[in-house]
Amino acid sequence: NGNAGFQQVLERLESDPVCQRLSLKSFLILPFQRITRLKLLLQNILKRTHPGSEEEVQATQAYDALEKLIKDCNENVQRMKSTEELIYLSQKIEFECKIFPLISQSRRLVKCGELTALDFNTLSPKWKVTTRPIYLHLFNDCLLLSRPKE
User: Fold this and answer.
1) Inter-axis angle of helices 24-48 and 4-15, to 10 degrees?
2) Using 50, 70 and 90 to split pLDDT, how confident is the model at 125?
């Protein structure tokens, strides 16, 4: 989005009749859709082969290889989503000192959300309770507390 030249070229390519008005995203997703269709095709082939035949053995091997490929693809997609979340979060969070690298190959965001912190003022004669929002970011290796910038 930040590169105007890239956006112009992309719009020109997407409007070309060869692309059939499909976006870049659809071309990136298409191989994954084809892999899942192949899995359905192989399942139907396995249903129609004779048990114990050479065709069944080959179809089973192809199905197992395809299952492994789909599993690897899904894991890579999850890894990329996790990395994108970390990049987005690192752009939003501002550290007072840069001793904590948020983006790491092994780090994943597990859960995040807003909580309300209660502050008790015990110095005043009456107990005064004030609230302020804080955010919890639970990673697979640490817990990060943040608060909105004032």
Assistant:
1) 50
2) low
Burial class, 17, CB count within 10 angstroms (exposed 0-12 / middle 13-18 / buried 19+): exposed
Could you give the CA distance from residue 3 to residue 53 in angstroms, rounded to a whole number? 57
Q: Are residues 110 and 79 in the same domain?
A: no
Which structural domain, as residue segments, surrounds residue 130? 95-149
pTM across the whole model: 0.62
On whether both 105 and 76 belong to a single domain, the answer is no
The confidence band for 60, taking pLDDT boundaries of 50, 70 and 90, is very high
DSSP state of 52: T
Note whether 110 and 56 are same-domain residues. Answer: no
36 vs 90: CA distance, rounded Å: 34
| Residues of the chain above pLDDT 90, percent | 24
